[in-house]
Amino acid sequence: MFQIFSLKNGLDNVKGFYSQGINAGLKKDKNDIAFIYSEEECDVSACFTSNIFQAAPIKHFKKYPKDFKTNFILINSKNANAMTGSKGVEDIEEILQNLNQYNPNIKNPIMSSTGVIGYRLPKQTIINSFKKFDFQKKDSNGTAQAIMTTDTFKKEIAFEVKLENGKSFNIAAICKGAGMINPAMATMLCFIITDANIPKKDMDTFLKDAVKDSFNTISVDGDTSTNDTVLLFSNKKSGVYEKNAFYEALHLLTKELSMQILKDGEGATKVVAFEVKNAKTYEDAKKAAFALSNSLLVKTALFGEDPNWGRIASTIGASQIECDEEKLTIKYDNIIVYGNGTKQMNKELEEKAYKIMKQDSFKISCNLNMGSQTYTAYGCDLSYKYVQINAEYRS
Amino acid sequence: MFQIFSLKNGLDNVKGFYSQGINAGLKKDKNDIAFIYSEEECDVSACFTSNIFQAAPIKHFKKYPKDFKTNFILINSKNANAMTGSKGVEDIEEILQNLNQYNPNIKNPIMSSTGVIGYRLPKQTIINSFKKFDFQKKDSNGTAQAIMTTDTFKKEIAFEVKLENGKSFNIAAICKGAGMINPAMATMLCFIITDANIPKKDMDTFLKDAVKDSFNTISVDGDTSTNDTVLLFSNKKSGVYEKNAFYEALHLLTKELSMQILKDGEGATKVVAFEVKNAKTYEDAKKAAFALSNSLLVKTALFGEDPNWGRIASTIGASQIECDEEKLTIKYDNIIVYGNGTKQMNKELEEKAYKIMKQDSFKISCNLNMGSQTYTAYGCDLSYKYVQINAEYRS
Q1: For the whole prediction, is pTM greater than 0.80?
Q2: ipTM (interface predicted TM)
Q3: Which residues of chain A lie closer than 8 angstroms to B387, CB-CB?
Q4: What domains can be seen in chain A, in order of their start residue?
Q5: A70 labelled catalytic
Q6: Which of A18, A29, A15, A12 is nearest to A134 (CA)?
Q7: Region label for B36, one of left (φ > 0), alpha (ψ between -120 and 50) or beta (otherwise)
């Protein structure tokens, strides 16, 4: 058995890792450049966006040989370095070449970017900022702030994982993401570091699995970005590892971060779990659950706090899965609003449903009664604020 | 050759057809019940929603034998009679049974509904309103008003089609639809009537074709309703028909009505054509075009009048079609903003792009240069007003 303890100060808890966020002048007065550095070289596992147009930092990462080791990642916000062609990749190479004069220990540096699409990186501004780097700094707070775009709060997390023999390893992460959030990775960056003595093979398998169960279940607006990246670095420094314990801690960590992203969904006022139960196939359950979490009519009804279950039913029917209106049941938390082919709400139940909708988070559960497959997608409401944020972003 | 003339007063132009809109008390002071009636029995062709949960009026229609004839449709707004199970269909049968005591000439009456999902029809209120019906009335205006929900203006249209021999037939329609609008039919009802002497076979083929090229190319919010219906009635009363002329007039009529629906998209301030050119397959072109017209990030950028083409590129990449960022060209009307793998905008072109975005309608054209297939989807922007309308609808 093992125990998982939550720790403050995110990345600062992991042995041998250093990080810092600074202002390089890409943004006014806010941190916009950050790094994460390990004295030891690290194994690194990656999950990237499913968008066909992958941003330059992802193309650059993929130029390294399979299973390469690195000990440094440079991260910038404000500019996504996406749709910048081969020049975008050359820019990264030129920028990273300048690092060794400040720290000769850096090996195979990589980069990650988030921000507006279609502009070349301001190379010299970024290179000029390297002189501010302190490679012995533990500054998880500043690092988490530097990678924010429309995020309204920084996202960091850390766990100590204590094994039965008393030994322990740590795992920590920062992430960003508030809009352009959709399954198959979102405009989100997440950097996970650990001192666990985990084999590279487990890293790859477990990360893929954890991303599937966390970041890939959420959606803010159904738009999948060019830059989505989840990276897991391990420098093995604790010398400690236990398979189940690590698996559990990684799942907990990514699930918690994905919920933080959703809570920070642009203009979102509430987080809703859309459970589709007893579908004929897993694909049907998933398709219907995401149809619900991405429907504008469902999202605006959530914002209006209106238990308008007709929109839930209609969206399931429109999702083209196998279903039958006589078999469908719809629940808001524990209140059945539709079943046996007809509305189930009287005045009293409707009052209760209205109360449920006023909560910050709740569950809408649709039992299809067609089979045994279940999927839960997580979404948020659509408010005036979302429109404002996204009509004004960039300008 | 033939000529098509636009006429005022919609349905009133077609020989032998009568229509009226009245207030039955479903809404306060507004028309909420309407009928269209023909002395002669009509052939009728239908296109219905692709939503798996079809509303009761659609199920009722389908109970008639194939190629049945009818001369009467009853239409109500405020209540969709959807998700009401077998009772919903029985309600329609009971309501329609009462018509013959007011007009014994009515044969095989049908019904169509739009409004909130999940509530039984107020049967007696509707039946009580029949005494107000005047079956010799020509009241296209009142009829078009009675079928409105969140529509801000009534939608009616009429053409006279004049053949070379001097003879002519008329075709006219009313429709409604402002939100829940998506390809594969929208929350839209459209009733087309004609006195052309058209064979039933041509009616079926031509209607399917016209709907594909008009209503099925538009989307307001990507939500497909339970009630979408397009019906074409012909009483042959003019005795005149010419294949090409009818085909052309029907296409013109449905295209014009679909653009009216889009202009009336809930909260929409502009209509945009999303053209995807030179895709490898027709499916790719269509998928990418609809991805653009339904993307929240694209729709909010349109509302913000921001030529943020990065969101266009990202959405195409996210749509999972075959594409290559080095081959893609993006144009706003005649201004190239992206091509040859990089941004093409200087200060001057950006000024021009900003001006284009301020127009009520314009075209965003994406040339994939992967093949020869093209599709154009039509969409609108997403404004605060959309959120307001849909957060508050029903209450």
Answers
A1: yes
A2: 0.78
A3: 300, 303, 382-384, 386-387
A4: 2-263 (3.60.70.12), 271-392 (3.10.20.340)
A5: no
A6: A18
A7: beta
